[in-house]
């Protein structure tokens, strides 16, 4: 686990457009921060700079106190959970969770993979479902498999990019509960991007409101609500 510190982070795209205009934010070890704002305000850009999928134009990114601006994604020890969870339908739960380990060819023995996947599965209460395919799981179980994939990487922090935006309202409600429960249980530093007000107001320890590339406000959900 690790803190994430953003200092005056700027993103200027090749066409000169400033998508992120000097964002500073301290995310404590174990904290759950929601990044919210209208479409186009720079949420994904900011998340992608943290993960290392996008260069930082200026400013500094620290993870666990270490400067990360020029580090490759794999050196940042983060795990991103995407929209729709991107599970492989033809693979079992076990193989879906094992996938990131198998990608790093030769780095883990079969025994290590077994051990790591079973540990992640037991943390997520998936140990009875390891042989099933995603189609035979509930929405909540699928969400947990996606998180299992993040956990198995032994990441220092989780980054969610609008993970629930394509789900219907009922499932979204269940997933919110599931994610909040897992995050409390694991205590992993989490940055969660959404444009959904309900998610913003119910999930996190703090809400950071982004508008046109600038942080407009950072507050507890209650503090945000009580603003005039
Ligand atoms: P959000 O995730 O909040 O919807 P994005 O981070 O995707 O916002 O985009 C922020 C702004 O940057 C938008 O105006 C978008 O059009 C622009 N943008 C995103 N990617 C690029 C790119 N590769 N080149 C130029 N502009 C981009
Ligand atoms: P490899 O691990 O062999 O570099 P991958 O396709 O797994 O290849 O990943 C490419 C890069 O993106 C790696 O540096 C990896 O750390 C990073 N990466 C892959 N998946 C994720 C993810 N879900 N979250 C964060 N980073 C990821």
Automatic annotation (TrEMBL):
Residues 4-228 form the ABC transporter domain. GO terms for cellular component: ATP-binding cassette (ABC) transporter complex, substrate-binding subunit-containing. Keywords: ATP-binding, Cell membrane, Membrane, Nucleotide-binding, Translocase, Transport. GO terms for molecular function: ABC-type transporter activity; ATP binding; ATP hydrolysis activity. The keyword Cytoplasm does not apply. The keyword Cell membrane applies. Signal peptide: none annotated. Coiled coil: none annotated. GO terms for biological process: carbohydrate transport. This is sn-glycerol-3-phosphate ABC transporter ATP-binding protein UgpC. The lineage of its organism: Bacteria, Bacillati, Actinomycetota, Actinomycetes, Micrococcales.
